[in-house]
Design goal:
This protein has 459 residues and is of the alpha+beta class. The protein has 3 domains: 4-105, no CATH class; 115-223; 243-399, Topoisomerase I, Chain A, domain 3. The chain has helices spanning 28-31, 86-105, 115-131, 137-155, 177-188, 196-215, 243-257, 263-282, 286-290, 332-341, 363-378, 388-400, 405-412, 416-422, 424-435, 453-458, and strands at 4-6, 38-46, 49-56, 64-70, 75-80, 297-302, 308-314, 325-330, 438-442, 448-452. A 5-stranded antiparallel β-sheet has the order 1-2-3-4-5, with helices on one face. Strands 6-7-8 form a 3-stranded antiparallel β-sheet, with helices on one face. Helix 8 packs antiparallel against helix 10 (332-341). The chain starts with a strand and ends with a helix.
Length: 459
């Protein structure tokens, strides 16, 4: 084992230049390296490592302290040796250094990280995923919101709040998160409720942060959030729509769009119509539409239906399933948008952006404008109609047209299993209709043959 050697007084670490600090309580993070904050400093060497022994200048009979820099953690480890005797302090420093370096060698973390520091590190990690297009900016914003909720919950349990050391956090405390969220929502609005699946999704993101901490050796399994409540097997379903519902929605939207008051309002209403058209004609998700940039859309002339046709590249970064795809959309509305209304035409600008800034997605503008449209929709009993229903109707029409489910799933950027689950009512209706097209006809000997209903009618 390497021997510890102690430097002489002349080998002490150099003190920083500058005036001596006034006598006050010593704060290591603030006073380290300042002239006069520490006295009687002496270097303690241990192989290739070195530590510093010192006494605090703000205490007349200060005990000895040891400080060693942990390169792996980028911080200093400090500890009082609980003695004013120098020789005893040297012996205790020797023992302390051995213990610290042994833990470092085994991969253990020496300095406990605070909740505040964990949130910052996790945020930086998530932002790196956005830059590498493994995570969308929208998803990052949602996850940040959920992490903040988790912090608010922990602040209600631990008095130290964001300064709580994550190593002291008990993951089983999250069994109380559901009740906390329910009470929090109820206090903000009359009869306010929150679904269990929403709470579960929040907890999954919070746990993701602690799993990141464990992977980085910042905490143990003890701190990983756990919960016992069950989520209903079948989540709430969106209201089904009929052809009449969709027709009334489109007609009302078109009429409402013509009632614009000024250029900005006309721009916003036209933008709303185009977002609706992109989803209605191409089955895109809302996030995929809002993530489109001008460079992602190319004109392909006129399609088989005689309408302007465009090739649309959905980038993996904007897709819910993180897989890019190339689709073709026929829509005259987009042609009008590009020629008459669009203000920001740089290839890097968003296809749908706010009136004054092409570098920002129009998501917020769209939903603000949609609130005004919803007032009109309420007059015809369609206030429940959401943007998602446009994609829902697009898929429904293709299923009714008996297109192969696998091809629909590929263009929609989803799975066959998801379509079969979500649209089981459409598929069941289609299949049950066909049951009446054929029937078995039995002979006297018990044999049978399958005949079409039309053939029986001809006989």
């Amino acid at each position: 084992m390497a021997r510890v050697s102690f430097g002489s007084e002349g080998e002490s670490e150099p003190e920083a230049d500058g005036p001596a600090r006034p006598e006050s309580a010593y704060v290591p993070s603030r006073d380290y390296g300042t002239r006069g904050a520490e006295r009687d400093k002496q270097v303690v060497r241990f192989g290739t490592h070195k530590a510093t022994l010192y006494r605090r200048s703000d205490i007349e009979s200060s005990s000895w302290f040891v400080r060693i820099h942990l390169k792996e953690e980028g911080r200093h480890y400090r500890k009082s040796l609980q003695t004013t005797d120098k020789q005893e302090a040297l012996a205790r420093a020797h023992t302390e250094i051995i213990n610290v370096l042994a833990k470092v060698q085994s991969g253990q973390r020496i300095l406990a990280l605070s909740l505040k520091d964990l949130v910052r590190r996790f945020s930086l990690h998530q932002e790196s995923l956005v830059r590498s297009e493994q995570l969308s900016p929208r998803t990052l914003a949602i996850q940040n919101y959920r992490v903040n909720l988790g912090c608010e919950f922990l602040k209600s349990i631990y008095p130290a709040g964001l300064d709580t050391k994550i190593s002291s956090i008990d993951g089983s405390k999250f069994n109380g998160y559901l009740k906390w969220r329910q009470e929090n929502v109820a206090s903000k609005r009359a009869q306010g409720t929150i679904r269990r699946d929403v709470v579960r999704d929040e907890l999954l993101v919070i746990r993701k942060m602690f799993l990141f901490a464990k992977k980085e050796r910042l905490c143990t399994d003890k701190s990983i959030p756990v919960w016992e409540f069950q989520v209903e097997r079948e989540g709430p379903k969106r209201r089904r729509i009929t052809h009449a519902n969709f027709r009334d929605f489109i007609n009302t939207t078109n009429a409402w769009a013509k009632e614009s008051q000024d250029p900005r309002d006309r721009y916003n209403r036209s933008l709303l119509m185009n977002v609706v058209a992109m989803i209605t004609r191409g089955g895109l998700r809302s996030g995929e539409v809002f993530g489109l940039r001008n460079k992602d859309v190319e004109s392909r002339g006129t399609g088989s239906g005689g309408e302007p046709t465009y090739s649309v590249a959905v980038r993996a970064a904007t897709s819910k399933v993180r897989k890019g795809r190339q689709i073709t959309i026929e829509t005259p509305v987009l042609a009008q948008w590009l020629k008459k209304y669009q203000r920001h035409r740089n290839p890097e600008h968003y296809l749908f952006s706010p009136y004054d800034d092409g570098n920002v997605s129009a998501r917020d503008v769209f939903y603000h404008t949609y609130k005004a449209l919803r007032v009109r929709l309420k007059e015809i009993g369609l206030e429940w109609f959401d943007l998602y229903h446009c994609r829902h109707w697009w898929i429904t029409k293709l299923l009714l047209s008996e297109h192969p489910i696998a091809l629909i799933a590929q263009v929609a950027g989803t799975s066959v299993k998801e379509i079969e689950s979500t649209y089981s009512h459409v598929l069941t209706e289609q299949i049950s209709k066909k049951f009446g097209d054929k029937r078995p006809v039995f002979g006297k000997d018990g044999d049978f043959k399958v005949v079409k209903k039309s053939d029986l009618q001809e006989e």
